[in-house]
Amino acid sequence: MNAPNSDQYFVHAIIGDGLTAAAFLEYAVADHVDEFVIIGPNASQLGRGLAYAKAPEGASWEYAYLLNSPASDIDPEFKPWLEENWAEIERKMTGRKPDWLAAAKELIAKGDVSALNIPRQFFGDFLVERLNNVIDRYRGQGKKVRIVEELAVSIEKDDESYKIKTESGDAIVAHSIDVAPGGPKDQRMEGDESKFSAPTLFGSEERIIEHIKRGAEISCIGMNATMLDALRLCQSALPDKDLRFTAISPRGELPEPLIPDRPDLFVPELRGDHSTAISFLDDVKASIEQAKKDGFEQREIRAGYRAFFLEHGLANFVRDPEEAKFVPRTLRHWLRGGTRDTILDFHGLMVDGVTHVEKGAVREIQPGNDGATIISVDQMGNIQRKETGFVINCSGAGSSFEFDPLTNALIEDRVIDICQTSGGIAVGEGCATKLENIRFLSPATTIIGAEIMPMPLYDAHLLRSWVKRANGLKT
Ligand SMILES: Cc1cc2nc3c(=O)[nH]c(=O)nc-3n(C[C@H](O)[C@H](O)[C@H](O)COP(=O)(O)OP(=O)(O)OC[C@H]3O[C@@H](n4cnc5c(N)ncnc54)[C@H](O)[C@@H]3O)c2cc1C
Q1: How far is it, in rounded angstroms, from Cα 200 to Cα 213?
Q2: Which atom of ligand 1 is nearest to the CA of 18?
Q3: Which pLDDT tens digit goes with each residue over 423-444?
């Protein structure tokens, strides 16, 4: 960022209220900043965003959704926070369905609470507490911190500053801006919004619960983290034995559970002379196979690769950037992992005939009088029809990303670019955009300066690390 005149009253705005926006505030180079303005619909709970949101108090699914990795992998400061707040967490989790404390009892007995997949809402509590301390620190330094609980709708250049328009028509003048609006929208599917279907899990819980309680079979399109959250929602509403739950995806594969097994992470050893993505991926594949032979589990392999790639960029191994761009789409499948508790429950409940997996590429959902029909195509190209009680579209963003309106405007104005290979967002060194003093980072970012992200940024630790780097801090 360019240095301002020393006599200028300098306003730095942050657009977004999630973990990335929070990291931009926490790691800001703030000496020259007189005022921070944080703009987001839930900006007074800065850090929660979509992923670590609060459920309505008293809802059966309060605290049902879990982190997808052990707490120790998400943030080094979360471990001491957990230990300090454990008694309160235990109190809040007592008597809940599914019985998270019972599943966790072995690790709790060992005092190893940071190895647990903690309810995401608690991680949100931790983030909000941390950010309130950051805000207090800035205020203690005499800076102003203004919270604007609205969506930003546009950014206009105005001589030496920018004018950010909000939904209500207000205009906020800022000299520099960090934009962190979150990932792309979930892809829609024909028939996914009806009496017997929901286009997304989050925000539809109350309606879905009614169908779970009437004993309807719940079918999820997609077998990812959101599907696992949908199973937890079901388990929060009815005893496991009374559920009927099906997940459908083209591959019909559950993610591998991320279970910490040993204190050391896998350290890859890769050759640095690959001329193609395929040759590099072969090298990675051999290293993962060797790691498994040496007794490393998916969690140690995934976290090991994440640490390795933070230290050594992909360009060190695949010099041609056009080739390197083909790496992430394969690597993300190999390094995929998910919430241990729910994946183990899913497998266990399959034996009892409660959960089912079906293979198929879903084309359409047809609502009926007392349920819905899912139309899919199997691997042989045959059309399949499945009658079910209620359908949740958990298929995620898909491959052709659809962004929020502000991101779309920035793309249209060529302030940020789209990578034609990944469909993700490309920004400059330090998350710079083409407009001076505006930076951008979201989980959909796939290129930062000369670095091509080998693993998706849908990961709290990676996002925070890239914000740190953008502010010249070591990761
Ligand atoms: C349901 C879910 C569960 C996840 N679980 C994990 C996990 O267990 N571990 C992990 O490491 N990662 C997880 N992730 C990945 C997650 O994307 C990142 O960890 C991180 O939370 C992303 O933060 P963010 O701030 O970039 O985006 P978000 O959390 O999406 O926050 C962006 C916020 O910006 C706001 N916004 C958007 N547009 C505007 C605008 N124009 N003006 C103002 N505000 C705007 C949105 O309302 C939103 O609240 C999960 C993601 C999701 C969606």
Answers
A1: 19
A2: 25
A3: 899 999 999 999 999 999 999 9
Sign of CA dihedral 200, 401, 311, 14: negative
Provide the residue type at 108 as one letter: I
Burial 464-474 (b: 16+ CB within 10 A, else e): bbbbebbbeee
257 lines ligand 1 (CB under 6 A): no
Rounded to two decimals, what is the model's pTM? 0.95
Is 51 near ligand 1, meaning CB less than 6 Å away? Answer: yes
The order of strands in the sheet holding 218-221 is: 197-198, 390-393, 218-221, 245-249, 355-359
Query: Taking a C-beta distance cutoff of 8 angstroms, is the pair 149, 40 a contact?
Result: yes
Give the closest residue (by CA) to ligand 1 atom 37.
181
**182 alpha carbon to ligand 1 midpoint, in Å?**
5
Strand ordering across the sheet containing 152-158: 152-158, 161-166, 171-174
Task: Give me ligand 1 centre to Cα 180, in Å.
Answer: 9
Q: Could you write out the DSSP letters of every residue in 358-383?
A: EE-EEEEEEE-SSSEEEEEE-TTS-E
Site of tokens 């949101």: 53
Asked whether 198 and 226 are in contact (CB, 8 A), the reply is no
Residue with tokens 């969690």: 299
Q: Which of 19, 24, 25, 299 to mutate to test the pocket of ligand 1 (most atoms within 8 A of CB)?
A: 19
Ligand 1 touching residue 307 (CB < 6 A): no
pLDDT of residue 5: 61
**Which tens digits make up the pLDDT trace of 264-308?**
999 999 999 899 999 999 999 999 999 999 999 999 999 999 999
Query: Rounded to an integer, what is the distance from CA 408 to the centroid of its chain?
Result: 20
| 214 CA from centroid of ligand 1 (Å) | 32
